[in-house]
Amino acid sequence: PLRVEMAAILDTSFDFRAKTDKPAAAAPKEAVAEATVAGSLSYVLHPLVVINISDHHTRVCAQNQASERVFGVLLGEQSGRRVEIANSFEIKVSVNAAGVYEPVKAYLGTRLEQYKKTFPNYELIGWYSTASEVQLGDLAFHEHMCEMNESLLYLVLDPVQALVPGNRELPILLHESEIHVVDEKPTMCFAKVGYKIDSIESERIAVDHVAHILPSGDSNSGSAVTQHLGTQYTAISVLSERVDIIQKYLQAVSSGQIQGDHDLLRQIKSLCSQLPALDTSKFNQEYLCDCNNTLLVTHMATITKGTGMINDIIDKYNTAYDKHSRRRGIF
């Protein structure tokens, strides 16, 4: 299965602008600009998008037993000059008579409406595919996508480069469409733009967990959260098993099935005595006292806050009244 370099994804301060200056080899000149465009917008890519694309490619390859291109849509939002690519979903495509991929617009429109209800702030900001570089039919596909929304981005993920041993770069190129004059005619082409990786806390936990999953589906070490929860689960399970053993032993002694060991019974009695007694009058009295003290502190804080607000109102009233009295005395 496809596994991209997770160390680069976890580094939220990593900037890929310096790595996008490599021209798209063997791509047609009318399709991709040779130089990287700085652009006036700042693009931010979330790890969830990379995981979705990788999972989409892996599932298709596993089902068809062959490597095939996959297509999908990029969702996000723009705030000023900052464009965040936050989510994605796969789409259905068809092949026309010329052998060029085209999106199934009916399916795309339905999925966009569904996502709009769940994520009202997200909008269509681009599309993605898996390939080593921009293909010949990608411009035609991009034009079809632009009918849904203008000025879309095009993200290309290279699954072959992701499997190269020792590869430390994220095999992703981000493009925006521009109009260039070719043979004295305005022609649309792709221009590579820089992007940054950014993530929220939930994404960092998910990526950390995925990074430790082996191809077999097992985890060799697991994420920090998984290890912490696993330790707690193991401790509680062991405690529950030992309590069951003590309970069964006491039941057997009580029923006369086995002879009781007085030394062991004294240890069990000592262990039970160390447990907090929650049904005694002393505990109820101490608990009620602590509860009343907590409520008293809360009430005192509320009274203090209300007193401060009243003092502010009085000060404002006195200030306004003094000014009014002075004006009336002057006139």
UniProtKB/TrEMBL annotation:
<feature type="domain" description="MPN">
    <location>
        <begin position="43"/>
        <end position="181"/>
    </location>
</feature>
<dbReference type="Pfam" id="PF01398">
    <property type="entry name" value="JAB"/>
</dbReference>
<protein>
    <recommendedName>
        <fullName>COP9 signalosome complex subunit 6</fullName>
    </recommendedName>
</protein>
<comment type="similarity">
    <text>Belongs to the peptidase M67A family. CSN6 subfamily.</text>
</comment>
<keyword id="KW-0963">Cytoplasm</keyword>
<keyword id="KW-0539">Nucleus</keyword>
<dbReference type="GO" id="GO:0008237">
    <property type="term" value="F:metallopeptidase activity"/>
</dbReference>
<dbReference type="InterPro" id="IPR024969">
    <property type="entry name" value="EIF3F/CSN6-like_C"/>
</dbReference>
<dbReference type="GO" id="GO:0008180">
    <property type="term" value="C:COP9 signalosome"/>
</dbReference>
<dbReference type="GO" id="GO:0005737">
    <property type="term" value="C:cytoplasm"/>
</dbReference>
<dbReference type="InterPro" id="IPR033859">
    <property type="entry name" value="MPN_CSN6"/>
</dbReference>
<dbReference type="GO" id="GO:0000338">
    <property type="term" value="P:protein deneddylation"/>
</dbReference>
<comment type="function">
    <text>Component of the COP9 signalosome complex (CSN), a complex involved in various cellular and developmental processes.</text>
</comment>
<dbReference type="Pfam" id="PF13012">
    <property type="entry name" value="MitMem_reg"/>
</dbReference>
<dbReference type="InterPro" id="IPR000555">
    <property type="entry name" value="JAMM/MPN+_dom"/>
</dbReference>
<keyword id="KW-0736">Signalosome</keyword>
<dbReference type="InterPro" id="IPR037518">
    <property type="entry name" value="MPN"/>
</dbReference>
